[in-house]
Amino acid sequence: MSPVIKIFDTTLRDGEQSPGASMNIEEKIKIAKQLEKLGVDIIEAGFAASSPGDFEAIDRISQIIAQSTVCSLSRAIEKDILSAANALKKAKFKRIHTFIATSPIHMEYKLKMKPDEVIKHAANAVAYAKSMVDDVQFSCEDACRSDIGFLKEILQAVMEAGATTLNLPDTVGYVLPHEMGKIISEIAEFVNNKAVLSVHCHNDLGLAVANSIYGVQNGARQVECTINGLGERAGNTALEEVVMILKTRKELFNGLDTKIKTQEIYPSSKLVADITGIRPQPNKAIVGQNAFAHESGIHQDGILKNPETYEIMKPQDVGIIQTGSLVMGKHSGRAAFREKIKALGFSVNEEELQNAFVRFKALCDSKKQVFDDDIRAILNEETTHIPQIFSLELTQVSASSSGKYCAALSIKRDGIEYSDCALGNGSVDSILKGIDRISGIKGNLKDYRVEALSSGKDALAKVVVKVEFEEGKPAIIGHGTHIDTMSATAKAYVAALNSYLSMKDLIRDKTGTMNL
Ligand code: KIV
Ligand code: ZN
């Protein structure tokens, strides 16, 4: 039995279904690179047949990632499998992940197929995938509500067709840990090490991590998960929790461990939260803002005497670094800035460093002290290369005596500056209307969030917007940071617009083939 638990990350596939908005391909590449740095074994980069955007993201990620296996999901349909194989062509290590539903309710109402037909489809799909790649994973969708005898039959057929990993998802987050343990142990005995058994749990009842752990204790050797537990509805198994459970309580797992570099957990969590605009709750295990904060006097006293009195993990082990010793302000030079970037875990090229340094200096003029999160925000913006079709030059908002707000904006396109103004019911409304007037593209604001990146009255504002530019297509995420909240709003909206224009023809329909 392998002592290694494989970590299969599906942030870019199952996780991407959650923000209610599409990530840009450049953002997906950034996340994939961080996942590789984190040491995940398999990166599920998307579902190639679902949209040209997913196909292109998998293709681009395949060309960049060299350590992890890159995987595409596909239904048990030839055209999906061919699309997955084509998207993965350039990957050093590649896997096709095909699936079909196996529960009575799914087979009868969704697939409208008899169990025998489902087995035939599954075996044919796996054999077809196997004719193109060696590494084939098969999933029984809604496995935990399926008949166990039927699961054995279909798994036998797909193993004979060449599947090397067998995944048993709790698609609707239904089972309790002891039930998951029972299913996995019975299937593990049946499979008898002829394939790797995998668990994939959803968190509808808050049990995704517990169920995954029970799966491991009963024979699963792959865990499917997402950063921050991102995912549709209540989300998927949180990668950081599973990994830290296995590490912290290793005496209970007979030497089983993952290859995850745990110090990369926090940077990965931050990156995914920044890109999706979905922050983990403050009390979220491992990566929440308060996960290592000790408020009570008794706890603080204990921690000072011996951290192990109240800490079962060290913050440094998950990559929470106190770089406070390196205080950044207007007197900090390029060398200190470079050191800070390194300490924050970013690797930048000279051009990115130069641009970030110029912005850092400008920030120092408007802010007494610049915090790590401020620098992180600058670096995230400077290292995400979305084509800047529109660039914002000026935002000014004033309140008029009529109770309306008036925004004056200047935006450049192809070197030409266009200026206009618009009236709105509030400053945000007036800004977005003004941008719509200049660009000629009307966006529909679906979500708007603003947060202060650090403490203090002069904190940098970060705005995340989700904007629908075309009816029936998912919204697009845009980010903007600025010392002034309204300027951050305008930047975020223009960023969403640029992101939309750069991948306009690649976005899937909301009602398209992502309907599994
Ligand atoms: O939850 C699920 O069943 C899935 C499968 C497609 C693996 O995500
Ligand atoms: Zn899922």
CATH superfamily membership of the largest domain: Aldolase class I
CATH architecture of the largest domain: Alpha-Beta Barrel
Distance between the termini: 33 Å
Give the mean pLDDT: 92
Query: What structural class should be given to the helix and strand makeup?
Result: alpha/beta
Fraction of residues in H or I helices:
25-40%
For the largest sheet, list the strands in their spatial order.
1-3-4-5-6-7-8-9
Q: Helix segment count?
A: 16
Written account of the structure:
- By secondary structure, this protein is an alpha/beta fold.
- The chain folds into 4 domains: 6-283, TIM Barrel (Alpha-Beta Barrel), CATH 3.20.20.70; 293-320, no CATH class; 334-382, no CATH class; 391-505, 2-Layer Sandwich (Double Stranded RNA Binding Domain).
- Helix content is 39%, strand content 20%.
- The chain has 16 helices and 15 strands.
- The strands form 3 sheets. Strands 1-3-4-5-6-7-8-9 form an 8-stranded parallel barrel, surrounded by 8 helices. It has a 4-stranded mixed β-sheet with strand order 2-15-14-13.
- Helix 6 (148-161) links the parallel strand 6 (136-141) and strand 7.
- Helix 1 packs parallel to helix 2 (52-64), helix 6 packs across helix 7 and helix 15 (427-439) packs parallel to helix 16.
- It is globular, with a radius of gyration of 24 Å.
- Residues 510-516 have low confidence and may be disordered.
- The structure holds 3-methyl-2-oxobutanoic acid and zinc ion.
- Zinc ion is lined by residues 14, 169, 171, 200, 202.
